[in-house]
Amino acid sequence: MLRSYNEEKTLSNEGQRKQFRVLIADDDQSTRILLTHFLKKMGYITIEAIDGEECVSILEKEKIDILLLDISMPKKDGFGVMSYLKDNDRSMPVIMITASHDIPQTVKCIKMGAYEYLTKPLDVDRLEIVLRNAITESELHSKVSQLKKELKSKEIFRNIIGESSSIKHATEQALSVMETDLNVLIIGESGTGKELFAQAIHEGSKRKKGPFISVNCAAISHELAESLLFGHAKGSFTGANSDHEGFFEQADMGTLFLDEIGDMNADIQAKVLRAIQEKKIRRVGEKNERSIDFRVISATHWDFTAAFNSNSFRDDLYYRLEEYPLYLPPLRERQEDVPLLAKHFLEEFCRANNLKQLSFTPEAIEEMMEYQWPGNVRELKNAIQRTAISCKNSTEITSILRHRGGHPGKNDKIFAPDDTPGKIDTTSKQEKILRLEEIERHAIEEAYKACEGNPTKTAQVLGIGRATLYRKLKKFGLN
User: How far apart are CA 378 and CA 252, in angstroms?
Assistant: First the structure.
C-alpha cells in the first residue's frame, strides 16, 4: 500500500497542477467521508452532494472533471443524473458507486454512458487505477468538448459574418452567456444585427428546443400592450371573442426577445418587471396567476441615462434586463469586415434571384470601406441588392454608394416629380461632375496644406484611406 501511495503521489502533483475536480454524489455520509479523505491525499479537489438534485445543481454551476455517482439516492437517483448529462450534452467520466446487488442497474448506467463502477465496500487499490484512467478519459473529454464548442460556435453564428476583433469579442461574450439563464441586454445601433445575436444565444442555450418569441416593443400600442404581452380571457373586453395567449406565455420553456425595449410604454413596465421577477403572469380578465418558465433577451439602441432622468424608463426594470450586457459594434468600427459582408450579401442575393454572378472592383471595395455606413449592416445589404439589380451589361460592380438609399446628404440632388434623373441632359451632368471635382480638389489641397504635407494626418482629416489620398493627389497634380 505504501508503494501504491507513492506512485499516486506523483499523480497527485499532476492532478493539483491541472486542478482536477471530483464531485462525490452519495447519500451515505461514511462513503463521502472515505472518498473525500483518499481523494484529497491524491491531490484532487473534492465537492460533495448528498442527493441527485444537489448533484445536478452543482453540475450546472461548477466545472467538474470526474463524477463519482451513487445509483440509489433520494430525490433523483443515478439514472436521473445520467439522463440529465445526456439531455444537456455534458461529457465527463462517470464512475458509478454501487452495492453488489445493484450490478444489473450498474450495467444499465454503463450503457447510458458511465465510464466504470466501484462496489461497496470500496477497494482503495481499485479506486487508484480507475481514477488514473479516468484522468486520461477526462482530458480526452475536454479536448472533445473544446472541438464540439468550436463546431457549435460555427454553426450557431453561421449568420454572423466577420473576422474583426470587435465582432469576435461579441461572439465570445455570447458564447459565454448562452448556456446560462441570465437575462441579456444587447446594445447596438439600428442595423447591427441584434436579433441575429439573440437568435444565436437561444439556439446555443438549454432552451433551444423551446420557442423563440420576438416582440417589437416599439410597435405595441399602449391600449393593447397588456393583452398582447400577458394575454386575455374571453369576454374580458369588447372584441375579446376567445381566450388569448400572450407573448410571455408563448415563450414558456423558451426565450422571449424584447426588441427596442427602450420604446416600451412606461405604464406597462411595472407589470413586465413583476412578470420577469416572479415568472408569473395574469391574463386580462382572469383572477388566477399562471407560472411560466422563460428567459428574456432584450435589445436597445438607447442611451438610458436621459430616460432615467425623465422617469420614462424604470431603472429597476433596466437592471433586471441587464444581468449580462452585450455590446454590438457599428459597421464603422469593424471596417475590415465590409468586404466579407459585401461578398456574402452579393453572392446570396444573386443566387436567390437567379442573377448572373457579380463581383466588386478594387475601387468599389475601397469605396465601401471608406464610407461610414450610418445604417450599418442593413444599409450595406440594401445597397448591394439594389446595385445587383441595376447591373445590366457588366459582371463587375464599380460603385454601390449611389444605390445606398437612406436619407439624402446635403450634396445629394432631390428630384421633384417632374424632374427625374432621365430628364437631365448631358451638358448638365458634365457641369455637375466638374463642380464636384473642383470642390474635392480644393478640399484635399487645403487639408494637405493644413497638415503640412503629412499624408497620414491629411487622410485622417479627410476621412479617407492613405491609398485613396495618394491616388487623389496624383490625379489633381498635388504631389
Answer: 31
Range of the domain at 26: 2-148
CA angle 316, 319, 323 (to 5 degrees): 150
Mean pLDDT, rounded, of the chain: 83
Which residue, of 354, 371, 406, is where some domain finishes? Answer: 406
Residue type at 165? S
pLDDT number for residue 409: 41
Residue 443 has pLDDT above 80, yes or no: no
Q: What is the pLDDT of residues 14-67, one digit of tens each?
A: 434 467 899 999 998 988 998 999 888 888 899 999 999 999 999 988 888 889
What CA–CA distance (Å, rounded) separates 248 from 258?
10
**Domain count of the fold of the chain:** 4
Question: What is the number of alpha carbons within 13 Å of residue 158 lying toward its C-beta?
Answer: 6
Kindly state whether residues 221 and 171 are assigned to the same domain: yes
Per-residue pLDDT band at 86 (split at 50, 70, 90): confident
User: Which H or E element spans position 135?
Assistant: helix 124-156
Instruction: Mention every residue, 6+ apart, whose C-beta is less than 8 A from residue 22.
Output: 39, 44, 45, 46, 47, 64, 65, 66, 67, 68, 131
What order do you get walking across the sheet with 294-300 strand by strand? 212-216, 254-259, 294-300, 184-187, 324-327
Question: 197 and 301 share a domain?
Answer: yes
Q: Is 378 helix (H, G, I), strand (E, B) or coil?
A: helix
The set of cell numbers assigned to 426 is 448631358
Q: Among residues 49, 51, 134, 55, which one has the least CA distance to residue 95?
A: 134
Grid cell 476583433 is found at 165
Specify the pTM.
Answer: 0.61
Q: What is the pLDDT of residues 95-128, one digit of tens each?
A: 988 876 677 777 787 888 888 888 888 888 888 8
Q: What is the CATH number of the domain that holds 251?
A: 3.40.50.300
Query: Checking DSSP bridges between strand 396-397 and strand 254-259, what pairing results, if any?
Result: unpaired
Dihedrals phi, psi of 35, to nearest 5 degrees: -65, -45
Answer yes or no: do 98 and 29 share one domain. Answer: yes
